[in-house]
Specification:
The protein has 160 residues and is of the alpha+beta class. It has two domains: 7-63, no CATH class; 72-153, no CATH class. The protein has four helices and six strands; from the N terminus they run αααβββαβββ. The chain has helices spanning 7-24, 28-34, 47-63, 102-116, and strands at 72-75, 81-84, 94-97, 121-130, 133-141, 147-153. Helix 1 (7-24) packs antiparallel against helix 3 (47-63). It is elongated and about 80 Å long.
């Protein structure tokens, strides 16, 4: 069994560790002081915990904004170009431009996959529509047996 963390899992783990170091650990002494009030009443709302909840909500709200990888442009077969990002999500979909029709677009998708994931095997495909755009979600199996989803923005040629 492979327990290697994915890029997304590492991203979230690192965010939690960063939050703990920046906010939680420095608040431990304050928490201990506030949990031992002079009247001895431990059934209280601890102010530092309320502050940490607010800070956590702010950090969480920022974190749920889609992470975008840097945009690139790459030459494909014929007049096709690939723009956008790495294809690991709809937000980072690879934009196919210059395909004359659906068949040329699908061929371009597989050209890109062969270049970036040599030896991959197709597993499945799904058509998605979001905010007026069309996307292909291709599920592939890599030579090491790992499965991956790759998203392509096919709006420029879908339906032609």
């Amino acid at each position: 069994m492979d327990f290697t963390l994915s890029d997304r899992q590492r991203h979230w783990r690192d965010r939690v560790v960063d939050f703990m170091h920046k906010h939680v650990y420095p608040a431990v002494d304050t928490f201990n002081e506030q949990m031992n009030p002079p009247d001895g009443n431990r059934w209280i709302v601890v102010p530092v915990l309320e502050d940490l909840k607010k800070e956590g909500a702010t950090v969480s709200k920022e974190a749920t904004k889609p992470a975008r990888t840097p945009a690139t442009t790459e030459k494909g077969p014929g007049k096709v170009t690939f723009e956008g990002r790495n294809g690991d999500s709809l937000e980072n979909a690879i934009i196919i431009k210059g395909a004359r029709d659906g068949q040329e677009g699908v061929d371009a998708e597989h050209w890109w996959l062969r270049k970036h994931f040599p030896g991959y095997q197709p597993k499945g495909q799904g058509l998605l529509h979001r905010e007026g755009k069309a996307y292909d979600k291709l599920e592939i199996v890599l030579p090491d047996g790992k499965q991956k989803e790759v998203f392509f923005d096919i709006s420029s040629f879908f339906g032609t």
